[in-house]
Amino acid sequence: MAAGRSLDRSALDFFPERVNYRSLREASKTCMGCDLYKLGTQTVFGEGKTSSQVMFVGEQPGDEEDKLGRPFVGPAGSLFDKALEEAGLDRDKTYVTNVVKHFKWTPRGKRRIHEKPNAAEIRACGPWLSAEIKVVKPRILVCLGATAAQALLGKDFRVTRMRGQWIESDLSERMMATLHPSAILRAPDPEIRERQYREFVGDMTSITRALAG
Predict the structure, then answer these.
(1) Could you give the CA distance from residue 132 to residue 127 in angstroms, rounded to a whole number?
(2) Is 55 helix (H, G, I), strand (E, B) or coil?
(3) Per-residue pLDDT tens for 131-143?
(4) Domains by residue range for the chain, with CATH
(5) Which of the residues 24, 47, 57, 151 has an alpha carbon 20 to 30 A from that of 70?
(6) How far is residue 213's CA from residue 207's CA, in Å, rounded to a whole number?
(7) Cβ–Cβ under 8 Å, residues 171 and 183
(8) Do 129 and 11 touch, CB atoms closer than 8 A?
(9) 41 touches 112 (CB < 8 A)
(10) Which residues have a Cβ under 8 Å from the Cβ of 96 and sit 6 or more positions away?
(11) How many other C-beta atoms can be found within 10 angstroms of the C-beta atom of residue 127?
């Protein structure tokens, strides 16, 4: 079950006349800017404080997020919440979203397995994210994983080389890229998983310090 590519339409074709969080979220429910709407149960738009100083951007909703219609509520979301709490960040005071708003998956038996969105799908969905950034106006913008980082910082950006470093950007006062919590969960053994988690908490702690500065 694979979604086809579409280059002749995008999220812009479904934008509301007046752009604010409420109108964007409502309009996104009918988005057919790429073929991923045929796979996803529903659009999973960003949520949180639109007045937040911190905005987190992941890749796409997963299986649980697709079912519940909320970002970061599955296993990766639980790890994300744990790390934020350990770093002294209140998720309720942040804004969390994804580059792509529909779950892209392929069947494996009765399971729906995550499949990485392609460049055309990311491009088609991009206007939603751009509008969210303009509405929230975050002081700190955090890319979780390679897809988010490359969507916002260019296809040559490498999280493995730049993880946890502050990056200059026109999108926010400060910007950072780090691992996606789902990548930590996929680590091949417990030792690597623990090391990556500690690094992730360290990055979240850097955000806490920057907010206090």
Answers:
(1) 9
(2) strand
(3) 999 999 999 999 9
(4) 11-212 (3.40.470.10)
(5) 151
(6) 10
(7) no
(8) no
(9) no
(10) 46, 47, 48, 55, 56, 58, 71, 72
(11) 18
